[in-house]
């Protein structure tokens, strides 16, 4: 398989090896390659489509983790007014506080938690979800959920907004995905993207244990420049860009570093909440400064479809 840059086709070189799956503990080790021309980073070896499908079904399975203390806690939190308040403080990487109207597509909508919030905020949201059990739960909440990959999606009407909340970095071909998003949008419609920033200070701090390597599921590791390039080349203009360092992400990386090889520790609610409290309550000046200096953990971008 070619190690050429997925964005520009130039040669790459390794910058980090022996990176393991700190989130689910799937076996194997991966290398992070950096493009010598545009700076994009990518996971190697890159799984094939069928390999990824098996990996998602084995490790990412929604049905495998319902009704646990962790999922129950998460569900209650997301629907609370405390959550909205917290997002104003912490930063909103899933566009859960965005107000508006019109048709919105949430790509990778899982069980439809985001759809409920988008509907509450004025949108007419629909979802796309490949996991049929998760899609079924979302439908039971009254939403249209497409169970197809983005290439196969043919909605009756185009969308005003498409949300890619921590999705684009999973794509084997991000530009192809953006091309399909463009096809699905009305003229002047917007794609709302959040994804990890490869220039994050947490990557420097935690090295291989940075949770946002998320190998082998994260294929591409963007920064502001490479994401802007991918958007420009697929017919989008960036209209808004922010950086956010979610307290949750700080907590999960800290746990991954403190308990190597024990991904289940990342689903211990009390531990996660305690560390989030420390990150948000004590480290907030640091988080703020890093976001301002381009080293936040998450890029949050809105881009408009060009005429
Ligand atoms: Zn490149």
Order of helices and strands: EEEHHHEHEHEEHEHEHEHHHE
Ligands bound here? zinc ion
- % residues in beta strands: 15-25%
- Tell me the span between the first and last alpha carbons: 36 Å
Strands of the widest sheet, in order across it, are 6-5-4-7-8-11-10
Structural category is alpha/beta
Work out the radius of gyration.
18 Å
Uncertain regions spanning at least 5 consecutive residues: none
Number of strands: 11
- What portion of residues is helical? 25-40%
Average predicted local confidence, pLDDT: 94
Largest sheet composition: 7 strands, mixed
Q: Count of helical segments?
A: 11
What is the quaternary state of this protein? single chain
Taken from the alpha-carbon principal axes, the silhouette is globular
Give a written overview of the molecule.
This protein is 36% helix and 22% strand. It has 11 helices and 11 strands. Strands 6-5-4-7-8-11-10 form a 7-stranded mixed sheet, sandwiched between helices. It has a 4-stranded antiparallel sheet with strand order 1-2-3-9, with no helix packed on it. The longest helix has 13 residues, at 269-281. The mean pLDDT is 94. It has helices at residues 49-59, 69-78, 81-90, 113-120, 132-140, 174-184, 201-206, 224-233, 247-258, 269-281, 284-292, and strands at 12-19, 30-35, 41-44, 103-107, 124-128, 145-146, 159-165, 185-196, 220-221, 236-244, 298-305. Bound molecules: zinc ion. Residues 5, 7-8, 10, 35, 37-38, 40 line the site of zinc ion.
